[in-house]
Specification:
The complex is a heterodimer.
Chain A: E1 3-6, E2 10-12, E3 18-25, E4 33-39, E5 45-52, E6 58-60, E7 68-73, E8 78-83, E9 92-102, E10 105-111, E11 115-119
Parallel strand pairs in A: 2-11
Antiparallel strand pairs in A: 1-3, 3-8, 4-5, 4-9, 5-6, 7-8, 9-10, 9-11
Chain B: E1 4-7, E2 10-13, E3 19-25, E4 33-38, E5 45-49, E6 53-54, E7 62-67, E8 70-75, E9 85-90, E10 97-98, E11 102-106
Parallel strand pairs in B: 2-11
Antiparallel strand pairs in B: 1-3, 3-8, 4-5, 4-9, 5-6, 7-8, 9-10, 9-11
The chains are: A mainly beta, B mainly beta.
């Protein structure tokens, strides 16, 4: 079955960087785009960006575009999200999420388990 | 970016009641609106796509409506497992955005 397994929790100091991985299995990795979504404690979902696994093309939310990078390694079916210059308000659970196309309607049907990133001095 | 605004932010209801959650887009998004349910500590789960299409396996007490800028999610006859947070998401733009979520709590 489809699985998306993310790396473990991270604790970082302000100004540092974090790189979260998402290893996919159970489907053709290159056939689906992948979004990254984060959720600060007690808050809603925030779309961070998207990567085309096949082409490597990326789109980033404007509020994060100067600090985020999304990459993938098709040889290991793994996607990565790196966030730089971390601040306390970057503390959140970070999800990788596979997009599916339902007849032209794009949805997120598969999610990773989430990775808690805590930014604290 | 397209802004998505949900209302209310939270509501209290009893088992058996019908509740409606609203989601407004800052511009016309046609029918490109999805609804997700999230249980605390879990990843979201897709319920409805394309504004009104129920994902296979989702109970029929969930229904979605609307188009353009105004959308609704209705849960008829609330069940204990429906107490959760609900999120709308627009998929019209390549830059996807979510609403801030609506928490459905037990009255």
């Amino acid at each position: 079955q489809v699985q998306m397994v993310q790396s473990g929790p991270e604790v970082k100091k302000p100004g540092a960087s974090v790189k979260v991985s998402c290893k996919a299995s159970g489907y053709s990795f290159v056939d689906y785009g992948l979004s990254w979504v984060r959720q600060a404690p007690g808050q809603g979902l925030e779309w961070m960006g998207w990567i085309s696994i096949y082409y490597g093309q990326t789109r980033y939310a404007k509020i994060l575009q100067d600090r985020v990078s999304m990459t993938r390694d098709t040889s290991t079916n793994t996607a990565y999200m790196e966030l730089r210059s971390l601040r306390s308000d970057d503390t959140a659970v970070y999800y990788c999420a596979r997009e599916s196309d339902f007849g032209g309607l794009i949805v997120i049907q598969q999610w990773g388990q989430g990775t808690l990133v805590t930014v604290s001095a | 970016d397209i802004q998505m605004t949900q209302s209310p932010s939270s509501l209290s209801a009893s088992v058996g009641e019908t509740v409606t959650i609203s989601c407004r887009a800052s511009q016309d998004i046609d029918l490109y609106l999805n609804w997700y349910q999230q249980i605390p500590g879990k990843a979201p789960r897709l319920l409805i796509y394309g504004a009104s299409n129920l994902l296979s396996g989702v109970p029929s007490r969930f229904s979605g409506g609307g188009s353009g800028t105004e959308f609704t999610l209705t849960i008829s006859s609330l069940q204990p497992e429906d107490f959760a947070t609900y999120h709308c998401q627009q998929a019209y733009s390549d830059f996807r955005t979510f609403g801030q979520g609506t928490k459905v709590e037990v009255k």
